[in-house]
What we know:
Elements: E1 4-5, E2 30-37, E3 40-41, E4 45-48, H1 60-63, E5 66-68, E6 71-75, E7 81-84, H2 86-99, H3 107-120, E8 132-141, E9 154-163, E10 171-175, H4 193-197, H5 200-208, E11 213-214, E12 232-237, E13 240-243, H6 254-265, E14 270-272, H7 277-285, E15 289-296, E16 300-309, E17 312-315, H8 323-337, E18 347-349
Parallel strand pairs: 1-4, 10-11, 10-16, 13-14
Antiparallel strand pairs: 2-3, 2-4, 2-9, 5-8, 6-7, 6-8, 7-18, 8-9, 12-13, 12-15, 15-16, 16-17
Helix pairs in contact: 2-3
2-OXO-4-methylpentanoic acid binds at residues 70, 196, 230, 296-298.
Amino acid sequence: xxxxxxxxxxxxxxxxxxxxxxxxxxxxxxxxxxxxxxxxxxxxxxxxxxxxxxxxxxxxxxxxxxxxxxxxxxxxxxxxxxxxxxxxxxxxxxxxxxxxxxxxxxxxxxxxxxxxxxxxxxxxxxxxxxxxxxxxxxxxxxxxxxxxxxxxxxxxxxxxxxxxxxxxxxxxxxxxxxxxxxxxxxxxxxxxxxxxxxxxxxxxxxxxxxxxxxxxxxxxxxxxxxxxxxxxxxxxxxxxxxxxxxxxxxxxxxxxxxxxxxxxxxxxxxxxxxxxxxxxxxxxxxxxxxxxxxxxxxxxxxxxxxxxxxxxxxxxxxxxxxxxxxxxxxxxxxxxxxxxxxxxxxxxxxxxxxxxxx
Length: 358
Ligand code: COI
């Protein structure tokens, strides 16, 4: 399907301070939109970034059929715009779509859309290493109806934001023993808006205790570590890198997957295994808890400075001593900037703007 393009007649680019980028508050000039109706995806289009009109009965506003992706484009040191493993995001969107009973979006069209959109707005990609153009593909239910059933109409859209780091300093994590993020059979593995909305109150309560994020435990026994909601979690205990295995309560993070592949190919000892909070406490008490860090597209690698559990506060070594996390971050940032050789073939050059313009 050809994507039609209507270019913006005025750009906001000159207003952006690329040295001071907040996360997710600045939006570039264009967006991609495609509607689903009558059982199929309609004409895909790139248009100037703009608001949507919404009917008050739009189903997403009532029953929350909303899924999204988070991915990044960056510039190599010689100025070439690049994506990082974009096909994994196209695939994962459809994993989420199936779980939330939404139509799949054709993966080829997803990839064509990001190439053309980011090609058109490539001047919005921040040049500094560690900054990027964050890409937010999203799908919402648009049928105007308040009965509880899957919508028959949807809007898929993609917009982009130049961003700096999501966390500007190491995070303090709280292992909660009352609230849960995901239960077996639920939606934890999907990038589903409701997974995020449900964590806002517990996260706020954790912040009141002096923490930045929750490190979620399983919903049955509050024993097994899951993930942090904005990122997957990894530990280094006694020289070994550990992370919980994928399950229906854990998002299949692209950064998690990449970090594991990088570590294994560099000869690190890595294990995907169920990790109990008790094991982490024991490792802390016997001095073998060397690192804990979150990995995610927005966060890249965020070191934990402390983990709170019940009455115990486990203080971790300073970020400068958390070498494995720092190595993963340097490798992923380096792949994105072209400093590190891409022996895995993960970096994909952004295609040029298409000739079809309306
Ligand atoms: C991402 O890492 O891209 C996320 O979606 C996490 C968060 C910003 C919601």
